[in-house]
Design goal:
Blueprint: E1 4-6, H1 10-17, H2 20-28, H3 37-40, H4 42-54, E2 55-57, H5 58-65
Parallel strand pairs: 1-2
Length: 67
Amino acid sequence: MKFGIRKPSLKKMIAARTSVKRFVRHSLGVKAPRGWGWLTNPKKALYNRVYNRTSISLSTLLKRLFK
């Protein structure tokens, strides 16, 4: 588990947006609504919830510093 500042990865951002799995889901319309992660994959949903609350992105940190 990561605590603190997340390091952005351009390679991973592009890979997530251009994956075959994403393309198939979006074209077929087989997506669950937002907030339904607990039903589709509870273990991953719990991990993501804890991760997003314990770490901070670099862009958010910069926004807070230069307000």
